[in-house]
Amino acid sequence: MSTPLIVGNWKMNGLGEAVTEIAAMAGAGRANLWVAPPFTLIDRAVIVAAGAVTIGGQDCHAAFSGAHTGCVSAAMLADLGAGFVIIGHSERRTDNGECDADVRAKALAARAAGLDVIVCVGETQEQRDAGAAEAIVGAQLAGSLPDAVDGLIVAYEPVWAIGTGRTPTPADVAAIHGFIRAQLLARFGLMGRGVRILYGGSVKPDNAALLLGQPHVGGALVGGASLTAASFLAIAAAAG
Ligand code: 13P
């Protein structure tokens, strides 16, 4: 089994001094840490990470360039030294009305720019309560994924677990990750076996080992606990 990939999503957090946390993460000498700071910190983060932490974006536009005020293209991220981009996070799907087709277009743009792409999926509490978690996640995968597995990572983030301190049971994590694997195999054939599937939603140092120990969980997408090197590295250490 490969080493778990631990990805930090800083969301809209971090002013200039916060890159010292990325420098500290880089200093730990682990090979499996990725961090997506806000756009404004990417260039500084790339410098302090010095190749020891892979830096990425939290979103990109689907177009290569053009009249899109306030937007950032995948090529711009790559130009800054970013290695990946998170696409289709539930906060963007909700706050910015992004649909599966938008997510897929962005994922294709990211791949065209040479970035690895983390495509996020996940159901709301209401959808889970209605017994529709797999149907929702299946539809999101069908509509959001690019056409090839190269550079593709999937993140399962149940919306109700994000920032709440609540997580699915290990059995529920295993079940839905197994479902996602089956969808990947159906879509990509045997190539779907190699696609890494991250779990995200209230991952902390004290629950990381249990959540990441489930089948088909290849790492974590971490929000709040990725903001300091201390907690992010503690998650990485717990994950093994
Ligand atoms: P929290 O770890 O803060 O719950 O956030 C998860 C998340 O949304 C990562 O993308």
Give an overview in words:
The chain is α/β, with parallel strands linked by helices and 240 residues long. The protein contains 10 helices and 8 strands. The chain has helices spanning 19-27, 42-49, 74-80, 90-95, 100-112, 125-129, 133-144, 170-188, 208-212, 229-239, and strands at 5-9, 33-36, 54-57, 84-87, 116-121, 152-156, 196-200, 219-222. β7 (196-200), α9 and β8 form a beta-alpha-beta unit. The longest helix is centred in the C-terminal third of the chain and has 19 residues, at 170-188. The mean pLDDT is 97. The structure holds 1,3-dihydroxyacetonephosphate. 1,3-dihydroxyacetonephosphate binds next to β8.
How are the elements arranged and paired?
Elements: E1 5-9, H1 19-27, E2 33-36, H2 42-49, E3 54-57, H3 74-80, E4 84-87, H4 90-95, H5 100-112, E5 116-121, H6 125-129, H7 133-144, E6 152-156, H8 170-188, E7 196-200, H9 208-212, E8 219-222, H10 229-239
Parallel strand pairs: 1-2, 1-8, 2-3, 3-4, 4-5, 5-6, 6-7, 7-8
Helix pairs in contact: 1-2, 1-10, 5-7, 7-8
The protein binds 1,3-dihydroxyacetonephosphate.
1,3-dihydroxyacetonephosphate binds at residues 9, 89, 157, 162-163, 200-203, 221-225.
Bound molecules: 1,3-dihydroxyacetonephosphate
| Head-to-tail CA distance between termini | 11 Å
Total DSSP E strands: 8
Query: Can you identify the CATH class?
Result: Alpha Beta
How large, in whole angstroms, is the Cα Rg? 17 Å
Major pleated sheet: 8 strands, parallel, barrel
Mean pLDDT: 97
Question: What global shape is seen?
Answer: globular
Give helix and strand order, one letter per element, not per position.
EHEHEHEHHEHHEHEHEH
CATH architecture: Alpha-Beta Barrel
CATH topology: TIM Barrel
Approximately how much helix is present in the residues? 25-40%
List the strand order in the largest sheet: 1-2-3-4-5-6-7-8
Question: How many separate helices?
Answer: 10
